[in-house]
């Protein structure tokens, strides 16, 4: 068997093992817990310490491709804000954002505690606006000018919870759930760094390391949720066994498998190098 | 009817999931089909969405309902048309004007914001007194932040050959960079596994109804 064929077969075995490592915990949950990290707690505290009646904004800056990681964060944060008596505005810098927001509100309302939450009073979905940073900047002057209507075409003036909201400074917190650009960075740069409104965020795990430096002593970012793990931590903080928590078993088993595969790969390379060195020694002799 | 459409959607989703996954075995016509449909659908969806979510409410509806009051919108409208002239070789030079406006304004807006948020604020965030706290773990964290930043930046200083004592901070910087690459790799693995979990959950929950 050539080295190439053996490598292809090995790759297929890895895929199969990974498939099993994710499939089996989904079918037979283990129930492993995970500790809450300080950056997730910061994000939680921001919403938790906002007084009842305060308005928070969640920007749905992601699309269906990253729904597994982002949607549990959105639902958990909506439920948390509602449980503290706050009102939630949904906006989107990505075209599919309004659909993601609608699904999140719908899912949060399935919780019997929040089934009476009313559109326009407890939450609104203002929809998508093109422009990224320019849109966020315009919100600093007037919300109504940017969003004269909500995503379903209802006029701003017919939505009671928006009555006293003039601009971005009227928000108690902003959370951008962001899978790329435009997204969280635009909210940090404008909402926090210009208007001093507390900004927190959720990102896909792949983008999280790039945003962690913004969680600094300048408070550019008040906590960060990075990937499914952070979503499950947030669910733990609000005492909910949600979709992120149930998927974490699969995530953990897959990570253990990958660690094992990295170790096996390194041992194989080491053995091959040693054998080659021996061959060269024999040849030289 | 909506139920039937929902069921058809789920079956199509399952089919395309398997078609994409089949690439893991080897390249095949099912994968190619799924790939082409995805590219076409994404482009079509994006175009139609921009027309209805951006062009209609911000331009056409305003011009149709109050033309006189929205004359200023004719400027972006004209610039948009000029951008499309890229498709006609004889007059494609016209597209350079709107393009230059887009690049100029974007650069101007971004420059100030990035300078403040990414440079000044980030540099200022490392100017801390590491011993301001009494918690040992925080002191260590603060020292690592300062040393890591200085040594990491020093690694990219190429104007003088890094040898002798000057090599030490560079070497330390490399270790910090390696740790950061490792963390990024770990997060990337987590993100990719999450995607697989999402697809398998769809198959097991929405398609096969095996899990709740």
Describe the structure.
The complex is a heterodimer of chains A (285) and B (212). Chain A is α/β, with parallel strands linked by helices and 285 residues long. Chain A has two domains: 38-240, Rossmann fold (3-Layer(aba) Sandwich); 245-285. Chain A has helices spanning 3-27, 38-48, 67-83, 97-109, 133-139, 143-146, 184-192, 208-211, 227-237, 243-284, and strands at residues 55-61, 87-92, 123-128, 173-178, 199-203, 224-226. Chain A has a six-stranded parallel sheet. In chain A, α8 (208-211) links the parallel β5 and β6. In chain A, α3 packs parallel to α9. The longest helix of chain A is centred in the last third of the chain and has 42 residues, at 243-284. The model of chain A has no long low-confidence stretch (mean pLDDT 94). Chain B starts with a helix and ends in a 5-residue tail after the last helix. The model of chain B has no long low-confidence stretch (mean pLDDT 93). Chain B folds into three domains: 1-65, no CATH class; 67-115, no CATH class; 128-212. Helices cover 75% and strands 0% of the residues of chain B. Chain B contains six helices and no strands. With 212 residues, chain B is mainly alpha-helical. Chains A and B meet through α1, α3, α5, α7 and α9 of A and α2, α4 and α6 of B.
